[in-house]
Amino acid sequence: MVYEGDCVVFGMHGVCRMIGKQEDSAGDGEMYVLQPIYDQRSRFFVPVESEALCAKMRPLMSREEAETLIGQMQGEKEIWISSENRRKEAYHEIIKRGERRELVQLIKTLYKQQAKLRKVGKRLYRTDEKYYKDAKKILFGELAHVLEMDINDVEPYILERVGEPA
């Protein structure tokens, strides 16, 4: 059950605030009205009775869970897949699931891959850049919210904590 004013992570959209409930236009039932906290122009309407869509709403981690997650990032494995097609499929599934540990692995992998490529004057493939951006939007948005910091300060904070140069 989500209450007005609660924040949740909603699928690939990141942190959203439940701003109310309303009847759907067809009169078929009640809808949660979610507004992404980093995009005030968007709104999502989630049928209260839809188990599949409601399952995409998950509670925010606590401040302690956030600090623990950051503390464990350095030990997370990289998940680079050399086949572009297999990588695209795997990374898409990670974004879709939104599981925090997998997002950390994806971000770490693409951060390291990007650093390697920069050294030789290259860039990530466009699809890898998209998944990197999407993963950071979901995870860093949640971390920013629970740690009460600006989303742009999350990456430098993490890099400082794990001992990486910014």
Describe this protein with a few key phrases.
alpha+beta; Thrombin, subunit H; Methane Monooxygenase Hydroxylase, Chain G, domain 1; five-stranded antiparallel β-sheet; globular
Descriptive overview:
- The chain has 166 residues and is an alpha+beta fold.
- The protein folds into two domains: 7-59, Beta Barrel (Thrombin, subunit H), CATH 2.40.10; 63-162, Methane Monooxygenase Hydroxylase, Chain G, domain 1, CATH 1.20.58.
- The protein has six helices and five strands.
- α3 (84-97) runs parallel beside α5 and α4 (100-119) crosses α5 (126-146).
- The longest helix is centred in the last third of the chain and has 21 residues, at 126-146.
- The mean pLDDT is 93.
Summarize the structure.
With 166 residues, the chain is an alpha+beta fold. The chain is 47% helix and 16% strand. The protein folds into 2 domains: 7-59, Thrombin, subunit H, CATH 2.40.10; 63-162, Methane Monooxygenase Hydroxylase, Chain G, domain 1 (Up-down Bundle), CATH 1.20.58.1290.
The domain count comes to: 2
Q: Using the alpha-carbon principal axes, give the shape.
A: globular
Strand content: 15-25%
Biggest sheet, in brief? 5 strands, antiparallel
**Tally of individual helices:** 6
CATH arch. level architecture of the largest domain: Up-down Bundle
Give the low-confidence spans: none
Mean pLDDT: 93
- The span between the termini is 40 Å
How do the strands of the widest beta sheet line up side by side? 4-3-2-1-5
CATH topology annotation of the largest domain: Methane Monooxygenase Hydroxylase, Chain G, domain 1
Seen as an oligomer or otherwise, the chain set is single chain
Give the helix level as a range of percent. 40-55%
CATH superfamily of the largest domain: CarD-like, C-terminal domain
Structural class: alpha+beta
What top-tier CATH class of the largest domain fits best?
Mainly Alpha
Rounded radius of gyration (Å):
17 Å
Element pattern in H and E: EEEEHEHHHHH
Report the strand count.
Answer: 5
